[in-house]
Amino acid sequence: MREIRVDEVRKVVKKLCMEANYYLPQDVLNAFEEGKKKEASPVGKNVFDILKENAKIAATEEIPYCQDTGFAVIFLEIGQDVRFVGGNLEEAINRGVAEGYTEGYLRKSIVSDPLFDRRNTGNNTPAVIHYRIVPGDKVKITMAAKGGGSENMSRLAMLKPADGIEGVKKFVIRTVSDAGPNPCPPITVGVGIGGTFEKVAYLAKKALLRPIGHRNPDPRYAKLEEELLEEINKLGIGPSGFGGKVTALDVKVEWYPCHIASLPVAVNIQCHASRHKEIEL
Amino acid sequence: MSAIRITTPILDDSVVESLKAGDFVLISGVIYTARDAAHKRIVEALEKGEELPFDLKGQIIYYAGPAPAKPGRPIGSVGPTTSYRMDPYAPRLLEAGLKGMIGKGSRNQEVIEAIKEYKGVYFGAVGGAAAYLARCVKSAEVIAYEDLGPEAVRRLVVEDFPAFVVNDIYGNDLYKIGRCQYMEIEDPALFKC
């Protein structure tokens, strides 16, 4: 068994929280360049310039790209030959989040309970943590800073198998159309198809972590991604919602086998601040 | 882009009447931040006849909750939040004299009607451009509801804060106009132009 001290996890999580919020991934920056070329609207082109400038200021001054520094969503892929020592793993992750958000001058956006108190917890904890056990002795930690505005525009539907490909497409297009200017376009659209009620939402979120332009390895789903992207960019919403040809930078689909009775679909919308960063221990 | 310069306070009716959806404006002067929780408290105070954090008359509210300021800075990153969450409160505030709102995203029919009735204006800023917009903020001070953290009411002094007029007193909507100009799917079930 390889031993990893939980304190090392804390340090890594802290660093990931800060860096994910200051530095937009290169694939997103490249997509802004491409987007500006494709965009027909002069206002839309101007929005792309502002976003590029915004990314530059954030990275240079080490301040958050967006004031909504998000819910800290942590994905852990833990090799089955790893043993965590020196404390409680979950506490270490949350300590890392608290330190990253406090020392990194990131906004604290989490309230203690959703309905009654809604009191700000003051350090952006707790995180949402997804654990997965994989072969090997490595640990991969991915931090996604998920903003509330685009999360609010996300949807899930339990379709009938008879709804098929057309039904899935209709639901995705309607979700993006109804979201309109609200989720800070140009967006990235994460689509989960299959599995169960909870699995499909996880798939949609997981899809958002794949770099822009990387297609699903299954050619049928890769084609679906391209068709959805083309349709979404006919909606006219455009950068910042002021009208234009580039509403989405990409659509990414993840799928899983499902029940004979079901066709679950989840659409997780990601604003242009597509912030995530990973590290392997 | 040619810009219309707006100076606050006070935003008076003659300025509001001159603004049309699609106009690009640069706002300078005092504006106030307030978002979900602060709106709830302001409307409760209005209903009870209690003192408000600031006199709403002729003012602009910026729907925003900033990131903390780094040492030596007036404010952290501060972009607009999604405005529809303030729709349940906005007509009451416009009735009480509020003139301008800055945010991002569409408003509901009640707000659009209240903008016409009380002569207000809704500006859309570029959502997510928070580091960029923070540069326009010269000073910031928490003036109420400090316990709300990022949701506290702040008095900001801004210089050349860029925004577009989205909803004007004539019932126009920039998001709709822009979308209809570039839409290539004709499906009224999805979106009506």
Unreliable spans of chain B are none
CATH topology of chain B, anyone? fumarase
Taking the sheet with the most strands of chain A, its summary is: 4 strands, mixed
* Helix percent band of chain B: 25-40%
Set down the secondary structure blueprint.
The complex is a heterodimer of chains A (281) and B (193).
Chain A: E1 2-5, H1 6-22, H2 26-38, H3 42-61, E2 71-79, E3 82-85, H4 89-103, E4 128-134, E5 139-146, H5 148-151, E6 155-159, H6 164-179, E7 187-195, H7 197-207, H8 219-232, E8 248-258, E9 263-270, E10 276-280
Helix pairs in contact in A: 1-4, 2-3, 6-8
Chain B: E1 4-7, H1 13-18, E2 24-33, H2 36-48, E3 60-62, H3 90-95, E4 100-103, H4 109-118, E5 121-124, H5 130-134, E6 137-144, E7 153-167, H6 174-182
Parallel strand pairs in B: 1-2, 2-3, 3-4, 4-5
Antiparallel strand pairs in B: 2-7, 5-7, 6-7
In words, what does this structure look like?
- The complex is a heterodimer of chains A (281) and B (193).
- Chain A is an alpha/beta fold.
- Chain A has two domains: 2-20 and 65-146, no CATH class; 149-279, no CATH class.
- Chain A has eight helices and ten strands.
- In chain A, the strands form three sheets. Chain A has a four-stranded mixed β-sheet. A four-stranded mixed β-sheet of chain A has the order 6-9-7-8.
- The radius of gyration of chain A is 19 Å and the shape is globular.
- The model of chain A has no long low-confidence stretch (mean pLDDT 97).
- Chain B has one domain (4-182): fumarase, CATH 3.20.130.
- Chain B has helices at residues 13-18, 36-48, 90-95, 109-118, 130-134, 174-182; strands at residues 4-7, 24-33, 60-62, 100-103, 121-124, 137-144, 153-167.
- A five-stranded mixed beta barrel of chain B has the order 2-3-4-5-7.
- Chains A and B meet through helix 3 and helix 6 of A and helix 5 and helix 6 of B.
